[in-house]
Amino acid sequence: MASMRTKILAVCAALVAVTVVVLAVLALTGGDDEDHPASDATSPPAATTKGPKRIGPAPRTVPAVRDWQATRGPGWKPAEDSRVVADPDGPLADEARLLARELDLDYSEGPAEVSDVELRHTPDADIPREGYILSSKGGQVRITGSSDAGVFYGTRTLLQSVRDRGGMADGVVRDQPDRKQRGFMLDIARKYYSVEWIKDRIREMGDLKLNQLQLHLSDDQAFRVESDSHPEVVSDPHLSKKQVREIVRLAKSRHITVIPEIDSPGHLGAVLEAHPDLRLRDRSGQPVPGAVDIADPKAARIIDELLNEYADLFPGEYWHLGGDEYAALTFEDPETEFPGLARAARERHGADAGVQDLATSWLNDRAEVVREHGRTPQVWNDGMHADGTVRPSEPRQVTYWTGKEIGAREPEEYLDRGWDLINMNDEYLYYVLGEPNEFTYPTGRRIYEEWTPAVLRGTDPVPAGKAGPERVLGGRFAVWGDLPEAQTQEQVAEGIRLPLSATAQKLWDPRKPELSWSEFSALAGRVD
């Protein structure tokens, strides 16, 4: 009897041990949930590699993928014989070589085999331009897109999955951004940033699937890009044209458009230091800081010459013209305070025109200059004035940043009048060095938990019917250098890391995220 009892106990112990092993395997692979088969023309062919038939975990990335269908299989991990495969003469060769370097794999022109990553460009596929399909099956990964940008974003998903968990579970990702414009704005006028620092941000942006870098090139403090037409306005230190080309080239490789901004007719202090005769003066003859005399044709000529000079240097689709905070319009009675502007307004635009109309006309003229180069102009919302004799010209896009300016208007008014907006809400998206004027450094958590592209002003969203991707085109997180010595470059980089990640998440998918903030911030630390 004792011998029989001993045998029974031994059998029970063995069963317990097997159960523990099975549970441990399931915990590592995400559990044996219900199967969700996903057949797709982009899936790699079945391979003979044997492996456990179980469902693995969904990829965790920043921003999160929008759709994941798991299938049973061993998943994919980079191995010694893994390669990144793409047509060397096709549009994905650069993306393939980049991913190969990042994963420490070989690049190959194929054909793709088991353990490889294959990149496919299928222009006729029913996939949005920045969308992609990533399929992991039979020990192979295939990333397909209708454009090189979409495939690039698929490589970011795979790269982050490897950084997070060492590989990719079997299944299919179908992913695309909610907003077309997803960006970061950097004030390099007030605070100089090294070329390498800017390049590091571009690499960071690429991994976050952001696609725009706005560079605020000039302000009252400095003008930061080499100029042949007006070298007298350039400050030291500054970016050479060669360095700008390096920045633009790296950005292009990450599918990021660089948007230059020469702000006018305000914020021109650096230009006016070299051309004091163009300063705006009030009725007593006192110069107004940073403001140019928009009645003087020489002022327009200088700005236009700079815009024309830089057209080839910045070949992207957009050009930001500024237009904000023109000092003349902050006075209660601009016509009385600036009689020269009032007189020019009447002469050019009729007896009922005022200084506001002259300012609108100024920005219209600059917009026409960049349109002649095939660019779409963008302006700050406080450069768009209500009513008046002269109306803002079209097409243009409005970057909405504030509701605090004189004559402030709700974002809905712009939308109701047909203007497309880019969200740069200073309540959430403004990182102002030194925190002057009641600004505080934004937190990633607040952006992640509260902000969406619909929250254009303050903390309340505009109605859902007005906030869709076709009207609110996207958003940008901005770093301003008001007190440039308040933080070092390194402190800025660390301070914006999580806010930029949160912004990328909400522009890619504005819905409530599945991960808690603590889970998201921990993930961001693993995959960057």
Automatic annotation (TrEMBL):
Keyword Hydrolase carried by entry: yes
Xref: SUPFAM superfamilies: (Trans)glycosidases, beta-N-acetylhexosaminidase-like domain
Keywords, sorted A to Z: Glycosidase, Hydrolase, Signal
Signal peptide (residue range): 1-24
Beta-hexosaminidase bacterial type N-terminal domain mapped to chain residues: 59-176
Biased composition (Low complexity): 39-49
Active-site residues annotated for this sequence: 325
Family affiliation: Belongs to the glycosyl hydrolase 20 family.
Name by which UniProt lists this protein: Beta-N-acetylglucosaminidase
Organism encoding this protein: Streptomyces oceani
Taxonomic path: Bacteria, Bacillati, Actinomycetota, Actinomycetes, Kitasatosporales
